[in-house]
Design goal:
Length: 185
């Protein structure tokens, strides 16, 4: 029995080390953002932002009225109502991303009338459009819209996350991206 004890102790230590390694979070998840989740159609409030999705559809032609800018492709257009919950300091959606099957797409800043970067106010909704240019074959599946006031994915801060089901979304031939409107839709 004395000869087996060191072997059993060693095996137990290896097993404990394996369990600790398995349950320890990866380094990048130690300072990840806290996702504040909400459903489509409901208002989600984080520490820095309040937002809700009003409409979602695909379009094949995106344009800015009274401008020469236009683009064709597979665009996902999301109409969002947003405001600042507590302060107007740095209150703007600086980063809007769409996560689909682990792939991240950033809202286009090419339409000059996009909601990206638009100043938000406390208690007054701003309604605007976020446009995501997607690969031509990507029109199905589950997506998640993520919004933050930070220019980069925040560290140890909250991030609004709203699910979107891409299946059976309507397709509009042409969409004009109007400037964000201050006030309720």
């Amino acid at each position: 029995m004395k000869r087996a004890l060191p072997w059993l102790t060693g095996a137990a230590l290896v097993l404990v080390a394996g369990v600790i390694t398995a349950i320890t979070p990866a380094q990048e998840s130690v300072d990840d953002a806290f996702l504040v989740r909400g459903g489509t159609g409901e208002t989600v409030t984080s520490r820095t932002l309040t937002a809700a999705i009003d409409d979602v559809f695909f379009t094949e032609h995106l344009a800015v009225p009274e401008s020469d800018w236009q683009a064709e492709g597979n665009w996902l257009v999301v109409t969002v109502t947003a405001s600042a919950p507590l302060t107007e300091v740095d209150a703007a959606i600086s980063l809007a991303t769409l996560v689909i099957d682990g792939r991240v797409f950033q809202a286009s800043e090419r339409p000059s009338t996009s909601l990206v970067g638009e100043r938000l106010h406390v208690g007054i909704d701003t309604v605007g459009v976020l446009a995501f240019e997607l690969p031509s074959d990507l029109r199905t599946g589950d997506a998640e819209l993520r919004l933050t006031i930070d220019n980069f994915t925040p560290r140890l801060d909250d991030l609004i996350a709203i699910p979107i089901t891409l299946d059976d979304l309507p397709v509009v031939a042409r969409t004009d991206v109007d400037a964000p409107v201050l006030g309720a839709p």
